Amino acid sequence: MIIREAGPDDGPTLVRFFLETPMRAGTEFVFDRSPDFEALLRLRGRHRTFVALSGQTIAGSITALWHEGYDGDRALRVGEIIDLRVATWARGGTLTARLLAAAREAFSSERTDWVVCLIGEHNRDAIGLVAGKAGFPPMKPMARYASVHFPAFRVPAVAKRGGVHVRAAGPKDAELLMGLARELDAPRPFRPPHPFTWPDPAGQHQGWIAVSAEGRPLGALITWDGMSMRRIRVVRYSAADQLFRAAMAVASRVGAAQALPSPGGSMRLWASRWFGVVESNARAARVLVRTALRAAALAGQHVLQINLAEDDPLRRALPALPHSVYWTMVYACPMEAPGAVTLHDDGRMCFADLALV
Fold first, then answer.
1. CA dist list (Å): 69 to 182, 188, 283, 297
2. Which of 221, 233, 302, 338 is the residue whose CA sits 20 to 30 A from 241?
3. Are 188 and 321 within one domain?
4. In what order do the strands lie in the sheet with 231-236?
5. Which domain holds residue 226?
6. Residues 6+ positions from 106 with CB-CB distance below 8 Å
7. pLDDT tens by residue, 7-36
8. For the purposes of burial, counting CB atoms within 10 Å of the CB of 90, is it exposed (0-12), middle (13-18) or buried (19 or more)?
9. pTM of the predicted model, to two decimals?
């Protein structure tokens, strides 16, 4: 078994490998990253991918990705362990540790200050990865995030309610949106300089802005449609999601929603890249989500995914509509290297982008 860095020619093989290696989140699914395996990675930062080979067969993969971030006004380099996959027949030995060692060497050479990984609470097999392996210090839990999945129902249009008006974000709103993001993300370590691209020349992002009756910006919601970079193909629905699927099928018969795909099909999903309102304005949050929900339904999406940290008061402000919740824990550890930047250790929950997985 050898481990080497992947090159451009490995892309099609990695795409096939991902299609053969399901992920568990209750429901089992695979990520289809065709036709360009690295497109999603380039959107997230700089990266190096490593593959483990048994002869000409891929046994495992891992990607070390890094980008700039902030803790308060201090810049730091954040590394992320992503795309860790090990074939079923290759599990139980030292392969995972060897892949992690390759990632650690990449982080060290790029002088990253901290390394993070995201593990879904249903993915119990991955919990052992944070115990301190391959030279990494033990990772500690830094934040718990909820991915709230609303079926894309065609809810009644609500552009204005209780003095809150919602409008679609336009190309000229970049400064306004970035200002809101800087203000509301400031307390969270690992926040990126730019949490999303606006305006988006690729047309993958949609945005809405909430304003008061006096015209004061109250908040915004930015969603991302990743179908051109990765498709979520369902392998097997969990028992709970079978009920969810049945309800969606009933709603589809009256034109209120799209029926969820059969196993093997792709789930169309808009995921929140950024969502925030000033002073935890619950009314603004609800109108923003309902506006996005209707837009998603009209665009033929199956699901609107709203990602929020566990401590975010907006979780309690979401519309009282049917939904399911998936939890993800963010783990992190400092790189033990001369000059590495440490965090202000005051218990703040860190920033994480759950849309781009």
1. 12, 10, 31, 34
2. 221
3. yes
4. 23-25, 27-32, 231-236, 266-267
5. 148-328
6. 48, 50, 64
7. 999 999 999 999 999 887 778 999 999 999
8. middle
9. 0.93
